[in-house]
Amino acid sequence: MIPNNNNIIDQVPLSPILHKTASAEKLFQIHVHEPTRHRFFIKGTEITRAILEGIEEIEEYEELQDILHLFQTDASKRRFGFPGLEVAIESFEEYIRGRGEEHKEFDFYQHLLPKIAQYALEATESELIERLPLIEMHQQGSFTVKPKDVRCILANAFFLNISSEIHNFMQKDRERDFGVLDFNRLYVCRLEESIERIICQLSYFYQQANHEQQLCIDREDIVFTRHNLTVEEEPNWAEMKDIDFSNAEEAKSIIKLHDGRMEDILCRGFVDFANRFIHIGSIIPSLTQEEILFSCCPESFLTLLICESLSDTEIMTMRGMVRYSEYKGYLNTFEFTGLYEPLGHTVDIIIMDAISRKHFQPEMIKRDLNKAYLGFKNVPEKEITSGRWGCGQFGGDFVLKFVQQLCAAKVTGKSVYYSTFKDEQCIKDLTEVLESIISSKITISELYYIMSTYHEYRAINSKAYFIDYLRQELQRKK
């Protein structure tokens, strides 16, 4: 590798397929722009164009593998194949061919891959790359982007044609907490989680290719916004003595329990059970709620490049996201089941992270109440779909997180559809809790006191769960 002032020239082995696209002398060198203040860069030279324009000549996986190796800046990785990608392509072809007689001849390499290359080449026509901002921590602000420009970036990511200053998100000496948009860890892995996530990405490109007018040209812009809760704006939960849940009809409209999935309710507001490092800063063979959400709404992946991690007083919103894939399962049972219907259904995603430790410490209680408040407040929609936010991988108590979201919904005037994910005991317990809150006519101030003092109660009664303490205090209130 020979660096100079403005670029890096990276020597790579030639693939036979590339002789069809440009001269061997030129293709022996790939010109790569240095990272700029934008923190990532797309290779956009004449050589790159020649390679991508030659995609139409590709007929099989081995040729695609050679192309992807050319785009890998780390030469040590070029000895590995991409079994996850290979199986995903085969599975997606099988799915599309099974959709009806008119699709029986579908061939990924003939019908879809050239389209993805076309989208990647649009980087040379787009002003986006030159003006893409960083949405930094503690800096409130919005960034509006056209779906076509996001598609261009995702297409380059498909070809491993995005390089970043951060090669390993977990490196200890990194200066900033931004993520990496890199599908390599999915491509090289044979796990079902990898394969299914790649299939979701192919579903995105397939629908973009077949419904471009609706999903790209005529569609509203996507807006990424960082929201910060200032000290002046922070709710005083302890002083909300006049806000209660005594109106049963109103209380049951504030939070509506159901045992389906969050996606089963066609609300526009949708809560992402986020990590403070959005999507953990990388794309790996894992399928938590947030990772499922990003795979089904792939335009969300842009946040990895432009959004720094969240502080304790921040959330992000992504307005105008489209869901492309239907699925079933969770974690290692996740499975792509088809193209999402209705076509073009948009959601406004609320990226709000919950704590993963010390859940009942008063300062943590307040933190997550404020997170839910800030998230609900900053989407214009009246109705929001949520669920066991802060539970699962984050280890939170499902009753505590329910009460926190109930309080936040009440104060912000929202109506939350609360999914229990087919957990019969959970919906039974939460229904009982809601009924007790209504009948006790308890105020938010009093609920806040109960949440904040449970840690003292548990110090004396180590086997008592939060729901036991809450029941006791609600009964005492009656």
UniProtKB/TrEMBL annotation:
Write the record's keywords in alphabetical order, separated by commas.
Hydrolase
Q: What are the BP-aspect GO terms? A: ATP generation from poly-ADP-D-ribose; carbohydrate metabolic process; nucleotide-sugar metabolic process; regulation of DNA repair
EC top class named in words: hydrolase
- Keyword Hydrolase (UniProt): yes
Q: Which Pfam families match?
A: PARG_cat_C, PARG_cat_N
Q: Does the keyword Ligase apply?
A: no
Write out the residues that bind substrate: 275, 289, 330
GO CC annotation terms, alphabetical: cytoplasm; nucleus
Enzyme Commission number(s) from the entry: 3.2.1.143
Q: Which ranges carry the PARG catalytic Macro domain?
A: 253-426
Q: Which InterPro entries match?
A: PARG_cat_C, PARG_helical, Poly_GlycHdrlase
Q: Identify which residues the record assigns to the active site.
A: 272, 290-291
Which molecular function GO terms apply here? poly(ADP-ribose) glycohydrolase activity
- The residue ranges of the PARG helical domain are 103-217
Q: Which family does it belong to?
A: Belongs to the poly(ADP-ribose) glycohydrolase family.
Q: What is this protein called?
A: poly(ADP-ribose) glycohydrolase
